[in-house]
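Contributing new records

If you add data, match the layout below exactly. Sequence lines come first and carry their own label; structure lines follow with theirs. Keep one chain per record. Anything else will be rejected by the validation script.
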Amino acid sequence: MTKKRVIYIVIGVVLLAGSFAVNRVVTAINQPTKGVITSTSKVSETQNTDNVDMTPVVQSSKYASFNYPEALTKEAQQSFNLPFVAVYNYTKHDVSSWELAISIMNVSSGSLNDNGSYHYRKVNPDKYIESNKTINDKNVVIMTDQTASGFAKVAFLVNGQYQATISLTGDHLGSSSSLDETFNMVISSWRWLIQ
């Protein structure tokens, strides 16, 4: 073999090998990548797994004070008439929708049975389940709507002739833990400021 022919054969082999290598690289680049995603960030103490900002915000009036989560937006004050003495509304509109409605009434008898919202739920046990909690040495009556497609609870707190109705409704994706946490935040932080 001539020297020239050997050089052509070597060049041909190198080009052929290079062509295979380039082909493999192009194929590898065009394939979907596989990997593992890891997170080193911790969920903030004021955020839960639903990514709802649970930082407490204080609401206070001459009748009571309580906390609600930062994730809720306070709605503009609406007009109301006696026996209502205070009304607060908060909402959250995102992937899910929540409504927190709080009202304080002056019920001269002091009896929860004279509260129309409570009475309606009491006489419809097929729809509402009643439970009781003691919070800050006061009895709290909770009515849960068992027919609602989402979260629906109402708490009733009594302080002499004043009664508070705390209603939280909302839909949730998977877990209702954020709604439960919100409901418990409001009722556990509740402080009557009037006798």
